[in-house]
Every structure is written in C-alpha cells, then in structure tokens.
Amino acid sequence: MKIPPKWLIGNWKMHKTRAEAIQFVKEILPKATHSLDEIGLAVPFTCIAELAKESLQSPLEIGCQNIYSKDQGAFTGEISAEMALEAGASFTLVGHSERRALFNETNEFINSKVLHAVSKKLKVVLCIGETELERSSGRAYEVLSKQISEGLKKVSSKEMEKVSIAYEPVWAIGSGVAASPEVAEECHRFCRSVIEELYSHDVGQRVKILYGGSVQPENINKFLEKVEINGVLIGKASLSSPAFAKIIDFRNPESHGNKAT
Ligand code: PGA
Questions:
Q1: How far apart are the CA of 125 and the centre of ligand 1, in A?
Q2: How far is residue 100's CA from residue 173's CA, in Å, rounded to a whole number?
Q3: Whose CA, among 55, 65, 220, 253, lies 20 to 30 Å from 88?
Q4: Mean pLDDT of 78-93
C-alpha cells in the first residue's frame, strides 16, 4: 500500500531557547528537505522568526501553539494571527488540551481563535480529545462532537480549507500510552462524519485529521498506515532531533525496523 503525503507536526510546548531551537532545525533540515510529507514545528513565540528564516526554501513549516482572537488591543500577553504570520508562522494550534485544562479555555473561546485565524488566512489545527473519565463513561463521541461543532461555529466551507483537526485523547498525551491505531482510526472516522454532517461530504473528505498522544518513532507507522489518519501531532518525541529525524524518515524501513508501505 502506498502511503499518501502526511502532515507531521512537532509540538514543542514550553521547551527550547532560541539557540537550542536553531541547533535542532539545523540538525533535522537535511531530512526535512527530502521529505514527501509536510513537516511542521509548533514552537514558542520567541523562536518563530528565526526558525522561519532558517527553514526558508525548505518544506519545514513553522507554526505557533496558540493565538488570541483579536487584531490588536489591550490584551497583555497575547499575540494576533497577523503578528504570527508576519513573524513567519504558517499555522497555529488552538485548543490544545493543556490550554483547555490549565488555562480554562472553552469551546466558545477556542472558536473565536479559529475564526480569527481563518479570517487572516493562517492555517489552524483545532485540537480536540476526550479525558479518560469521558471515555470510560461512554461519552467520548459526545465530547468530540461538541468540541468540533462548537469549535467550528460560523466557520464557512471555504474557510475549512485552512482548518485541520488534531484528535488527541487527553489520557494519551504525555502518558507513554498511545491510543491503539484502531481506536484512533475509529475516532477519526467519527470526527470526519461530524464534519460531513456540518458541511458536506467533500469538506469532510478533504479535512486533515491528525492523531496525537504518545506518538514515537517506534509506533508512528502503525498510525500512518491508516487511511483515516492524515498525520500526527507529536509532543515529547519532537524534542530530540534524532527522534524527530526518525519520525520524518518514517517511510524508510531501515530507520524503523518495520515496513512503511
Ligand atoms: P505527546 O504530546 O506526544 O508528548 O503525548 C502530544 C501533544 O501534546 O500534542
């Protein structure tokens, strides 16, 4: 089976100084340059401009981990989509489970950020996912459906061209215990059906849905073999350049000891 291009995004969270970030990018750039896939790094705000410069002329895209929903104003500590774009970011994450849990971000607030990003043509990855309790009490699909429909409220079909979804079960993030590729596939299929219902079959088929939660070089192929899984969002394993280089190299059986095609 030939694997179509995937989107591989590293999410550095609050890690790396500028010097560390530049060193990292220099180390992975040779692999990223020859990749058949889209490679992205969601980095701290302080690193965007320099890394965007460093990765010019390469397929590596630099993104941010969060934005605010307004153009400008008295919003201490925030940045706008335009500021992110000007610094060289081509995408942003929004609604990551850490933002939801630690900073009390609601679906409504996250929706305002999605609307702001697409209005400025900044690509946006809307992160969703259920907690362990929500899963064990049989409410996972209800939660995902709500996160999608409220997160995408008033986003038009046209604007959906700029939107991707990252399905990240909260219990799998940073735990070392990934969802099984079968569970991930099933959830992706469900999320796609919600989008088809909200928009159309075409929009649902086109939207990229990434899996995130304890993806590592050792298990990445099992996810990316699934047709429903259009990419991955990777936290911990994106912090080490050798590990991230292996992730980029997932199609090379020698790098992984298992076959990618
Ligand atoms: P993890 O994080 O790969 O360390 O589980 C994923 C994420 O938070 O996006």
A1: 14
A2: 13
A3: 220
A4: 98
DSSP 174: T
Locate 110 and state its tokens. 């996250």
Q: What are phi and psi of 232, to 5 degrees?
A: -140, 150
What is the Cα–Cα distance from 116 to 111, expressed in whole angstroms?
A: 9
Candidates 234, 240, 244, 247: which one to mutate for ligand 1, based on the most atoms within 8 Å of Cβ? Answer: 234
CA distance 230 to 207: 9
> What is d(CA 115, CA 124) in angstroms, rounded to the nearest whole number?
9
Interval 15-25: pLDDT, tens: 999 999 999 99
Instruction: Please tell me if the CB atom of residue 8 comes closer than 6 angstroms to any atom of ligand 1.
Output: no
The secondary structure of residue 169, as a DSSP letter, is -
The letter for the amino acid at 67 is I
Q: What sign results for the dihedral spanned by CA atoms 255, 259, 260, 261?
A: positive
Residue 187 clears pLDDT 70, i.e. is over it: yes
User: Is the shortest distance between the CB of 125 and ligand 1 below 6 Å?
Assistant: no
Which element (helix H / strand E) includes 123? Answer: strand 123-128
Distance of CA 15 to the CA centre of its chain: 17
